[in-house]
Amino acid sequence: MIEALFRREGDFFVPTPSSRGPWSRHHLHGGPVVGLMAHAMEHASDNASLNLTRLTVDLLRPAPDAPLTVTTRLVRGGSRLQILEASLLAGDTKVARASALFLEHSQVAVPEYGRFSPSEYEPPAGPVEANISEAAGWTNQYSPVGLHSTAKAVLIDGVKAQGQGIAWMKLPVPVVEGIETSPGVMAATLCDFGNGVGQLGLGGDVGCINADATLYLHRMPVGEWLGLDARSRMQDTAVGLVETTLFDSHGPVGKVMQAIIPMRMPGAEG
C-alpha cells in the first residue's frame, strides 16, 4: 500500500508510484512537484504564524521518477510577510523553480460588497472510491499509476476535454511520508489538476500540457475535499490559459493560473 507521494531518505525525496503523471510513467505529475516545493518552503519559513498566499512554480523540464532534492532560500523575512525561493533538482539538473509569498492572517471587518460569494456546492458525503481518471472516464494504459489514479474525485460538471470542468478532489495520502499535509500544501498539490479538470482537447489525439502553475490563496481551505472550477481557452498562437477557482464548503479559497501549450496525448502514435 502506498502511503505517501514521497519518502524522505536523508536529503532526498524519493517519489512513490503515486507521484507519477499521465504523460509518461517515467516522469512525475506536476501536482507532486508543486506540492513538494510548497512543503519545502513552508518548512523553511521561520515564522509558523504566516500562511501561504502565493506560489508560482515553473516546470522547467519533466521531473524524473528518481530521488530529488529541494534547496530553499529566504528572500525577504518579516513578522507579517515572507518571500522564499526554491529549486527542485534531479542530480545536478534543475527541473523546477518556485517562489512563495507568506502573509499574516488577522481579523478585519469586510463590508458586504467586498466579500466572496458563499459556496454553491456541498462536498461529498461518505466514502468515495473513484479517482479522477475513473470519474472522468479516462483510460490511460500508457501510465496507469500516478497521482491521477490516487487522488479521489467527484465530478459536478464538464470534465470532458472541452475546456471546462467542476469537480471535488481529495488527496488521500500525505505529500511526504510521516508528515501531516497542511491545507496549503494540499491545495498546492491538487491545484495542478486545473488543467486536467478543464482540459482543452484540440481534436484527434492532441490535448494541452501546462508549463507552470501560480496559486493564490486568500484563506486556507477547510476539510479534506477541495473544489476546482476550471476554464481553459487558447489563442491561434498555440498558447492558452487555464483559470481555476478553488473552493470548499464555505466558498472560494483562491485562484490558479496555468499557461498551456498543445501536446500529443500519452501513447499516441507517430
Structural features, described:
With 270 residues, the protein is mainly beta. Helix content is 14%, strand content 39%. The chain is built from five helices and 13 strands. Strands 3, 4, 5, 6, 7, 8, 9, 10, 11, 12 and 13 form an eleven-stranded antiparallel beta sheet that branches. Strands 1-2 form a two-stranded antiparallel ribbon. A hairpin with a 2-residue loop joins strand 1 and strand 2 (12-15). The protein starts with 5 loop residues before the first strand and ends in a 6-residue tail after the last strand.
Assembly status: single chain
As a percent range, the share of helical residues equals: 10-25%
- The biggest beta sheet, please? 11 strands, antiparallel
Q: What fraction of the residues are assigned to beta strands by DSSP?
A: 35-45%
- What integer value in Å does the Rg equal? 18 Å
**Straight-line N-to-C gap:** 36 Å
| Overall form | globular
Report the strand count: 13
Number of helical elements: 5
> Can you write the helix and strand succession as a string?
EEHEEEEHHEEHHEEEEE
Mean pLDDT: 94
Overview in brief:
By secondary structure, the protein is mainly beta. Helices cover 14% and strands 39% of the residues.
Brief descriptors of the model:
globular, mainly beta, eleven-stranded antiparallel sheet, about 15% helix, about 270 residues, two-stranded antiparallel ribbon
Topology:
Layout: E1 6-9, E2 12-15, H1 30-44, E3 50-59, E4 69-76, E5 81-90, E6 93-104, H2 132-136, H3 147-150, E7 152-158, E8 164-170, H4 183-191, H5 194-197, E9 206-210, E10 212-217, E11 225-234, E12 240-248, E13 251-264
Antiparallel strand pairs: 1-2, 3-6, 3-10, 4-5, 5-6, 7-8, 8-11, 9-13, 10-13, 11-12, 12-13
Helix pairs in contact: 1-4
